[in-house]
Design a protein that fits this description.
By secondary structure, this protein is an alpha/beta fold. It has five helices and five strands. Helix 4 links the parallel strand 3 and strand 4. Helix 1 runs parallel beside helix 5. The longest helix is centred in the first third of the chain and has 17 residues.
Length: 146
């Protein structure tokens, strides 16, 4: 199951890459089933909020007809930023899996540790599962931009 999720996650990141968006993908999983997918679309949709996680959360909420995703997990190809970590907490997602660290803006283990902050009202578990392909696609994208 995990290999299938990682494969689909990389596919979502590649969709963003092909659109000249930062190549990040996200999947919402419930009971082992992928219920929504998302990839970065800030440029495509002219909307600063359209990070992969936000897109996937929005689709999952529509599909489940609920803003509460407390029986769901989110898989992301890149460590969530502060905005996305907040959206994950607000949607009550129970666990986050991510495949690459974001040293400049990661809000889970790199720059900030929001999910470890006991002053915040929502508990979110997380797991970093390093996948070389996830970090390689990001490195390639930004190398091409320079």
């Amino acid at each position: 199951m995990q290999k299938n999720i990682v494969k689909k996650l990389i596919e979502e990141a590649k969709k963003a890459y092909k659109k000249d968006e930062v190549p990040v993908g996200a999947l919402i999983v419930r009971n082992g089933e992928i219920i929504s997918k998302g990839h970065n679309q800030r440029i495509t949709k002219n909307n600063a909020l359209y990070h992969a996680e936000i897109v996937a959360i929005e689709k999952a909420c529509k599909k489940l007809k609920s803003w509460r995703l407390d029986d769901c997990e989110i898989w992301v190809s890149l460590e969530p930023c502060v905005m996305c970590a907040g959206a994950i907490m607000q949607s009550r997602i129970k666990k986050v899996y991510f495949l690459a660290q974001d040293e400049k803006g990661g809000a889970v283990i790199s720059k900030y540790r929001l999910f470890d902050d006991n002053k915040l009202p929502f508990k979110v578990d997380y797991e970093y599962i390093p996948v070389k392909e996830a970090s390689d696609i990001l490195k390639r994208f930004f190398k091409e931009k320079r």
